[in-house]
Amino acid sequence: MLDQSNIMKHKKFLLLFLCSIGLVDSFNGFIMQELGLPGVVGQLYRMLFMFILVLIIYKHGAIQNFRSLGFLIIWLLLTLPFIHYFFHNTTGGVSFDLSNNLKLILIILMIECIRILKSLGIIDKKDVIFVLKVNFIIFPLTILIPWLLGMGYSNYSNGSGFQGFYNANNDLNIVLIVLLSFGVSELINRVVHKEKFLFYLVINILLFISLIIIGSKSSFVFSGGIILIYLFYSFLKHKVLKTIKLLFLFSTLIALIVVVLSTFFKEDLALISDRQNYFWRVQGQQGEVATFLLSDRNGFLIAATESFRTQGSLETAVSMFIGQGRYNHSVNTAEVFNTSRTQVLVEMDLFDTFFSYGVIGTFLIYLYLTQILLKGLKSKHVPIHIKVSIFIISSFSFFGGHVLYSALSGMFLGIIMSSVETSIKEPKNEIEELKFRHEPIKQ
User: 176, 211 in Cβ contact below 8 A?
Assistant: First the structure.
């Protein structure tokens, strides 16, 4: 049998890494902004985490249980950058592509490692819930504490979009929305079952405030959407009296948030309003509503399509099947879009995947991810907050990007998909077969 002490050690290492995402990324941003040092802490953390995932899979002799489709995608992502070298002829382009591809590889390794450990009875649904709960507490605190101390920085030029020490505004936005889905679900459960809920009420308020001061349009849309989704779900699942009780709870929650924002965050709200009003005047009122809603992504898509079409016939044919690489795609799109930026992506994951990896890469990657997501939506064993998170993260990936190729939100996609794997009950004979493979043959 496997050494139980090693099993628990591996499990603790895995949970420790998943629970420290916010602290590591905040510290990484702190040393970059406040100390002027290179931000390598986040990169080292993820490389070490990736190594531990591979080590756990190897140590438990579970490589044969690694899904072949996952192996194929990893092999493709490690091989294609060297083929795409012939598009741009720069070693920097190969390095750029490999660095971005590793983010997607990390997601696959997380999913496969947790799925295998779950099959062996080493990790379960409660462990993933624990990870979400810890991050539910850490993320709003790592945004609001720097705000209180007058530290951290804003994402936008007019001073709006406060994000603490995190470097990626869109990525952070996705993570907070996913955590909000978890937090609201837990709050509802405690109210419905007449358990203590003050802790979840307070943290949800902090999370809402953190989302609002980020200043993104999607922050407002998805925050309101989450409340409506849970109210509708409650109406379908619970009796009228409980639904009225939850409606009163949400009304109180929103009132408290409005009071806090109007009292302490007036300046932040004014800057956010000024920025959105400016873009509505120059885009929305000029008939470019799609440009306003998508923050120029429709323009990026047109430029990417044009750069793809105007390649040579051979390059276009090769790109159709295996893409042109993320580096080449971003450089060519920037040239067509006619911007001062040297690299521009569509920032919509499906299109960036196609232009980077072609039909073959896009089909394999989305086949792997979609199988798990659909399994989660269909299963009655998967919690409602995970199903809501699947909808949110899929929508964000398509319309706003910053999911599959993000170091931060990509890890949360891995956590959500891992939650699907740990929630679904496997057939008993399949579990026994997996365990049998890891037991020594008795002499």
Answer: yes
Q: Which residue has 């047109």 as its token pair?
A: 302
Range with lowest mean pLDDT among 28-37, 77-86, 200-209, 231-240: 231-240
**Poorest-confidence range of 53-57, 183-187, 353-357, 361-365?**
53-57
Chain segment 202-220, per-residue pLDDT in tens: 999 999 999 999 998 988 8
Residue with tokens 């099959």: 119
Q: Helix, strand, or coil here: 154? A: strand
Q: Kindly report the number of other CB atoms within 10 A of residue 85's CB atom.
A: 17
DSSP E strands: which ranges in 387-429?
A: none
Residue 436 contacts residue 399 (beta carbons within 8 Å): no
Q: Tell the residue number behind the tokens 């983010």, with chain if given.
A: 103
pTM of the full predicted structure?
0.91
* HSE of 339, CA atoms in CB hemisphere, 13 A: 15
Contact between 85 and 53 (Cβ < 8 Å): no
How many angstroms separate the CA atoms of 121 and 77, rounded?
31
* CA-closest candidate to residue 136, choices 169, 178, 164: 178
CA distances to 73, 207, 321, 344 from 329, rounded to whole Å, are 20, 36, 14, 8
356-415: pLDDT as tens digits: 999 999 999 999 999 999 999 998 889 999 999 999 999 999 999 999 999 899 999 999
Q: How far apart are CA 246 and CA 230, in angstroms?
A: 9
Determine the pLDDT at residue 234: 81
Cβ neighbours of residue 43 under 8 Å, at least 6 residues apart? none
What local confidence, expressed as pLDDT, does residue 164 receive? Answer: 93
Cα 301 to Cα 304: distance, rounded to the nearest angstrom: 5
Per the structure block, which two tokens stand in for 11? 């499990």
Which bin fits 36, alpha (ψ -120 to 50), beta or left (φ > 0)?
Answer: left
What is residue 170's three-state secondary structure? helix
197 C-beta neighbours (distance < 10 Å), count: 18
- Say how far apart CA 186 and CA 385 lie, in whole Å: 9
Helix (H) or strand (E) holding 36: none
What type of residue sits at position 14? L
Closest CA to 352 of 101, 106, 169, 86: 101
